[in-house]
Amino acid sequence: MHELSIATAVVEACAERAAGARIVRVRVEIGQLAAVLPDSLRFCFEICARGTEVEGAELEILETPGRAVCGGCGATVALSSPFGRCECGGVLRIVAGNELRVKDMEIA
Amino acid sequence: MCTTCGCGSDVVTIDGADVHAGHGHAHAGAHRHEHGHDHEHPPGHGRGHEHDHGHDHGLDHDAPPSHGRTVSLEQNILAKNQLLAERNRGWFAGRDVFAVNLMSSPGAGKTSILERTIRDLWGKISISVLEGDQATSVDAERIRATGAAVVQINTGAGCHLDAHMVAHGVERLGVPRGSLLLIENVGNLVCPALFDLGEQARVVVVSVTEGDDKPLKYPHMFRAGHMLLINKLDLLPYVRFDVERCIDHARRINPELEVLLLSAETGDGMPAWYDWLSTRRARAGVAA
What we know:
- The complex is a heterodimer.
- Chain A contains two helices and six strands, in the order H-E-H-E-E-E-E-E.
- Chain A is of the alpha+beta class.
- Chain A has a domain at 3-66 and 97-107: hypothetical protein PF0899 fold (2-Layer Sandwich), CATH 3.30.2320.50.
- The longest helix of chain A is centred in the N-terminal third of the chain and has 16 residues, at 3-18.
- In chain A, 44% of the residues are buried.
- Chain B has a single domain (81-283), classed as P-loop containing nucleotide triphosphate hydrolases (Rossmann fold).
- In chain B, strands 2-1-6-5-7-4-8-9-10 form a nine-stranded mixed beta sheet, sandwiched between helices.
- Strand 6 of chain A pairs antiparallel with strand 3 of chain B.
């Protein structure tokens, strides 16, 4: 449900920079470990965009896969949940998958 | 809606009043006023090639974008909340206030832990409370009965507190210098994990009646926490809850997580919690 807050923040960030121009596309980067559901975000984005420069804009979501580096053996491993242990038993440090960024927007 | 952080504050109420009622909306430094034309671009840096390179400098270029262009923003979606959280943190530090964010699923015993803590520490330290719930002031009334100062934040449809609500709540609460501020977040094991309130410590509460698999099911919350309180220890003989398993799961997600077992009902384990608060408070640089 926090996707509503995330969507609101995306719409505001874009509307602020749009300076009245109409925005047709917004690209965001959402890490797969960031606890944000893309479908839910799309749904909320459409609602939040109503009545703003972002209304009707397409939301493109770039999903970044989770990746971690082992503190023990230094191996890089793929992660599908925000925790895990390396095969060697080492503690994993997440290096990708937590992203929550507005990348860019396209003006009409 | 408040334009400061977009929390949807048209439905957020503080002690029953609209979040912006009766004050000057004091967000010094947080409002960005956009002036589209008053900074000079060097020659050749006209509007024709707007920011379509990937640097993170979205905040200080205010020229309106030209048409049919891609405009780079490259900014953290939660940047506004982060900014307000840092302002709260500075405000707390400047007043020697130690702020703790308590999070759990509904019914884990956050309010009971607060009630007991306030009563047991009465006369030793001044405690103020921010109560977050979607609706009602039931929890605030429970806290008020202990004698502590409390403000209720109702988030309406919102599933978490954010830094903006806390700023307004604190404004209303009038937190005394050198005090302990306990912030009870909305009962929810998912969303509050993402929103920094400006607190110095995050505490996650799990009760033995919920099941020992909660950490693996809700990893973000356990990753965000500094301290895990396992509450309702008095009910342990009656439920299937493996304490060691729960702790092991939580530390698989967050190896640094500290853990205490307690019962807000009987008071068992509470002194260790008070010691932890005291130690963390000292470490945060707050005068004793």
